[in-house]
Amino acid sequence: MATEELQAKVNETLASIANAKDEKALRTVLSQSISAKGWINDFLKKIRELPKEERKDFGQAVNEAKKTLQRAYDERLGKMDKLAVSDKEYLDLTLSGAVPTFGRFHPTTQALRRICEIFVAMGFEVVDGPEIEDEYHNFDALNISSDHPARDDMDTFFIHGDIILRTHTSPVQIRTMERLEKGENILIRVISPGVTYRRDRPDRTHTPVFSQVEGLMIGRSITFSHMAGVLQSFAREFFGPDINLRLRPDFFPFVEPGAEAAVTCPICGGSGCPTCKKTGWVEIMGCGMVHPEVLDKQGIPSDKYQGFAFGMGVERITQMLFQVEDSRWFFENDYRFLRQF
Ligand code: DAH
Whole-angstrom Cα distance, residue 322 to residue 245? Predict the structure, then answer.
């Protein structure tokens, strides 16, 4: 009788163990069955009430029941552990690691930094100017009056009134001269990298946003030869020792004489290729001796001081440095393009 009752209780508990949804439910089953407070104790107590000859067998049956339930409990718990772990926490230490991707500078930034390094090594200081400019600094102070045809070459984004997006970095020349404490022995050696804007239709060599580096050197006896020397040194440092610089007359209202500087085509070495349009040369900047009127207007007497200025297009140079066909790619932020640099 007691044995049947015990068996029924065991079966019932085995079913509860099998059905326990989680570890907590399983522990409850355990504490209600074979723990010190569980029903198993009732059966242990019953042993004494039985006739002597039945006691031994029944005692063994109760112990057996306890062992069976403990095994079932352990087995179920083991399965539960695996389930829980494989569900979310399982960490396979044998898997190969994920290679982290490293950040890098945009190719234009890389070229800009290199340009700055080279000029800084020659004693130039890097200065900054605003991208939102006024017409005075962008044009008038640079001898580009409102009826000057040079304004047509720089199709301008107007913000309001005479406030515009600068069309070149040359206004930083003016801002540098304005800032200068005018005493004896004026010496300016600055470069100014930055973004510029023109209402150009994008194509392989034009984008409405582009970067320039402006340079300005003014002192008591700075000559055209100094300019040629500085620019030649720059070109060789930047593109390589076999590069030559060619200066040809050009016109910019704020310099006199003005020149266009070209370098030996870094792609073909001067023998002629599509990049240099078979000429062996590529233009990289405008330059010249700062116009006396520009100096005088800023309170730098042109009978005492002179100097040179230059302005280069950074995307152009970067295109040549990294052999990039289309300058629009610099602005599309396509990771497949950018991660190559
Ligand atoms: N600002 C001119 C441009 O964007 C480039 C330039 C030419 C800058 C001659 C200069 C210079 O400083 O001397 O086309």
Answer: 20
Query: Of 43-47, 60-64, 200-204, 206-210, where does the model show the most confidence?
Result: 206-210
Q: Is the peptide bond before 257 cis (omega within 30 degrees of 0)?
A: yes
Domain ranges of the chain: 2-89, 107-338
Pick the CATH number of 107-338 from 3.30.230.10, 3.40.800.20, 3.30.930.10, 1.20.20.10: 3.30.930.10
- The tokens describing 198, both together, are 């023109």
By alpha-carbon position, which residue is closest to atom 13 of ligand 1?
287
Contact 247, 260 (CB under 8 A): yes
**What one-letter code names the amino acid at 73?**
Y
Residues 6+ apart with CB under 8 A from 102: none
pTM of the model: 0.72
C-beta of residue 167 within 8 angstroms of C-beta of residue 156: yes
If you take atom 3 of ligand 1, which residue's CA is the nearest one? 168
* Alpha helices (runs of H) in 2-106, residue ranges in sequence order: 2-19, 23-33, 40-49, 52-84
For residue 144 and ligand 1, the question of a CB distance below 6 A is answered with no
For ligand 1, whether the C-beta of 129 sits within 6 Å is no
Residue 166's contacts (CB-CB under 8 Å, 6 or more residues apart) are 129, 130, 131, 132, 133, 137, 138, 194, 196, 197
Look at residue 205 and tell me whether its pLDDT is greater than 90.
Answer: no
